[in-house]
Write a structure and sequence with these properties.
six-stranded mixed β-sheet; alpha/beta
């Protein structure tokens, strides 16, 4: 099947459409229903009757946007009517939810008259926290938005006008910088004079471009003052009429610095591109076919052509999803009365700044592993970059507060943490550790310091104040790669092959001379094996923690720190722990990486160390020793081990957390089973710390939770070591390295 048939099947699958209503409160008992509806619902209703602002406290209004359209100008389809536009409006709701966790009701109004449309939308103000106008034809859309902004006390935003303006405005800020040109000197030509083009031109002026430097063309050619006088253009287009001779788009584009296309495909030739100024900026944003293809624009000249389109299969996609979800997120969270010019500028500037930062590995993978680095082919972030939420929404919220549009004031640090929590429990949990790490950064030795991911991670640690990274490796190699990556920082480097490291050799020999290691072998290990070098560095106190494993198999990466640093005084064994985060739940899984077949004493020790780890994340541990048996229902050597481990822990006066076992996994995790069938259990709530009976079960268990249970796995975190050491998994991303470095810093703080 082709794309059209695939899409039809996608939409008609049961249930039809793309959205549904979901409850956010329990509805399992009669009491739940009496709270949700009659008679309990009367209490919040009466409170709202006394104070309408209480609706933001008692209802979903503060996170609910109405996507309102009459289907008169659906992108690529034209005036298809209200009913036919519904799949598009549902899709808009999907994007709001996916990217900014904003709920949407799509409203399709079969109304063409401006005043009637305004009245119908205005009447819905009690329902919504904001209104997103969508796919309404010009010039009616201008008047509809103007009237609604004046009449409504909630944000009203016509995305077709302002979305493209904001995203392409961000691209323009960076493109001008890459081209070495000042914004107020740019000669800008527009192809198209509809709602989007006019709003974009106005926004470019708001950013610093000069109105007199903007030439706008419609299907009849350059919009001139003589055409205005002749009554050839409407009052909206007349805003950008220029005192020049009439001419074609080809005449207008000659010598221009910037081409902004919001018209139709294929109307710009290579000869027209060749006539532009040096290092031209070409935003060919017509969809689905741009005014000129990416290849033709690039091939037309030998100097730098900075090219953007509306397509996802080329660099620099001008996609409105980079804007509207996050603009509304910031506006809703401060209960803004409007989305004003300052808020729009703040969004564009935040997007522009984000494009200059190192790009997460997950984003690079999502776009085919092509390098993404600030420059001609990367002047705006990618739509799937999750950092857009954390940059744009706070910028918009801050601008709303500064400009007087906000009715609520936010602490911006707390607000960023709230935004992270919206994207998943893992971000919320890691924020706890990251904040602790920033309070007192420690020195972290990165054993594989020549790896690009390690260098990028070191840059982030240093920039965010999480740690003081030490890159272990060749100085020239690390500096060269940092420069190639565009990272502007001065890394701390420890080069094993160049420096006075004889004391490391002596210490390694002292520790391992009775383990079969000679003095010359100690020299070789320190100078040639970065894992041994980093381990000695931590052991002698020149670093506080160590990370390795990115390019090694787990056992070979773990061996040097185990030999040199060893386990803590109160530990005989190390263990690997994953923190599994679900939407509203966190579970620690141990041991998943180290001990093949632990006995009851090892299981008990692993439990205590994992409980200490959980508390670093501000989680009070409730431990379950897992088996296929429930409290003696099966008795053999395998079930006795977790049962005896639980007894050891219960009898240990130093254990100050609930623990029980042996028990099956569902017994440990399901409250009804614990409280019903096994009400005698020591756990009064479901377990959040699962100790598996052996390595095979642990490794299988955490991967099932991750792949089928939808959990995000953070780790493995190594517990039981004398000093903080974490061994990464091969292929881990930069964020994983930074997360484990933060955990190591918190470990070191407690040391």
């Amino acid at each position: 099947m082709g794309l059209d048939d695939d899409s039809r099947e996608y939409h008609r699958q049961d249930p039809p459409g793309k959205i549904e209503i979901a409850t956010t409160k329990p509805t399992n008992t009669q009491r739940d229903l009496s709270l949700a509806y009659s008679p309990g619902v009367a209490a919040p209703c009466l409170d709202i009757a006394d104070d309408e602002d209480a609706a933001y406290e008692y209802t979903a209004k503060g996170n609910l946007v109405g996507v309102v359209s009459n289907g008169s100008a659906v992108l690529g389809l034209g005036n298809i009517g209200a009913q036919a536009s519904k799949p598009v409006m549902e899709g808009k709701g999907v994007l709001f939810k996916r990217f900014a966790d904003i709920d949407v009701f799509d409203i399709e109004l079969d109304i063409a008259d401006v005043d009637d449309f305004v009245a119908a939308t205005k009447a819905m103000e009690p329902t919504f926290g904001g209104i997103n106008l969508e796919d309404i034809k010009a010039p009616e859309c201008f008047e509809i938005e103007r009237q609604l902004r004046e009449q409504m006390d909630i944000p009203v935003f016509h995305d077709d006008q302002h979305g493209t303006a904001i995203i392409s405005g961000a691209a323009l800020l960076n493109a001008a910088d890459v081209a070495g040109k000042d914004l107020d000197d740019l000669d800008i030509v527009f192809s198209g004079a509809g709602a989007s083009a006019l709003a974009t031109a106005r926004f470019y002026v708001s950013l610093g471009a000069k109105k007199e430097n903007i030439t706008m063309c419609d299907s009849s050619g350059i919009i001139t003052e003589s055409r205005v006088e002749a009554g050839d253009v409407n009052k909206y287009k007349a805003e950008f009429a220029q005192p020049v001779d009439e001419g074609s788009l080809s005449d207008a584009i000659e010598g221009a610095d910037v081409f902004a296309g919001l018209s139709v495909g294929g109307i710009v030739s290579q000869e027209m591109v060749q006539s532009m100024a040096d290092d031209p900026i070409i935003f060919a944003m017509a969809n689905p076919d741009p005014e000129i293809t990416y290849e033709d624009a690039k091939d037309a000249r030998e100097d730098t052509v900075i090219m953007a389109t509306g397509r996802s299969d080329y660099p620099n996609q001008v996609n409105n999803v980079l804007g509207f979800p996050f603009i509304f997120r910031g506006a809703l969270d401060v209960r803004a009365t409007e989305i004003n010019e300052a808020m729009k500028r703040a969004a564009a500037e935040a997007l522009a700044e984000l494009a200059r930062q190192d790009v997460p590995d997950a984003v690079v993978k999502a776009y085919g592993d092509h390098p993404l680095q600030f420059g001609p082919d990367y002047v705006i972030p990618k739509p799937l970059d999750p950092r857009v939420l954390f940059e744009v929404a706070p910028a918009v919220a801050q601008a709303a507060m500064t400009s007087g549009a906000a009715r609520e004031r936010l602490d911006m640090n707390e607000y960023r943490e709230r935004l992270e929590a919206r994207l998943g429990k893992s971000r919320e949990m890691m924020r706890v550790v990251l904040n602790k790490a920033k309070s007192n950064p420690k020195r972290v030795a990165l054993a594989e310091g020549e790896d690009e991911k390690m260098i990028r991670a070191a840059y982030q640690m240093q920039e965010e104040g999480i740690a003081e990274p030490i890159l272990v490796g060749k100085t020239a190699t690390i500096l060269r790669k940092a420069e190639e990556l565009g990272l502007d920082f001065d890394p701390t480097i420890a080069n094993p092959r160049d420096g006075e490291w004889d004391h490391y050799v002596d210490r390694l020999y002292e520790l391992r001379q009775r383990k079969g290691v000679t003095e010359s072998e100690s020299e070789e290990l320190v100078r040639r094996d970065s894992n041994y070098f980093a381990s000695v560095m931590v052991e002698v106190g020149d670093a506080d923690a160590m990370l390795t494993g990115l390019t090694h198999h787990y056992p070979s990466a773990l061996r040097p720190p185990l030999q040199i640093i060893g386990t803590a005084d109160d530990a005989n064994y190390a263990a690997g722990v994953y923190m599994m985060t679900f939407k509203n739940r966190v579970v620690f899984c141990a041991d998943t990486t180290v001990n093949l077949d632990p006995d009851e004493e090892i299981l008990a020790e692993i439990t205590k160390h994992t409980a200490d780890l959980a508390r670093q994340f501000n989680v009070e541990p409730r431990a379950a020793l897992l088996s296929y048996s429930n409290f003696g229902s099966v008795t053999n050597e395998g079930t006795r081990k977790p049962r005896d481990a639980a007894t050891l822990l219960q009898d240990d006066p130093d254990v100050d957390f609930p623990v029980d076992g042996e028990m099956q996994a569902d017994t440990a995790l399901v409250e009804d089973i614990l409280e019903g069938t096994y009400d005698f259990a020591e756990l009064d709530e479901p377990a959040n710390l699962l100790v598996f009976p052996n390595l095979e079960a642990g490794n299988i268990g955490y991967k099932l939770l991750q792949r089928l249970g939808g959990a995000e796995a953070i780790g493995p975190m190594l517990v039981g070591m004398d000093k903080p050491v974490h061994v990464l998994q091969r292929g881990d991303e930069v964020k994983d390295i930074v997360n484990l470095a933060a955990t190591a810093v918190v470990d070191a703080q407690e040391e």
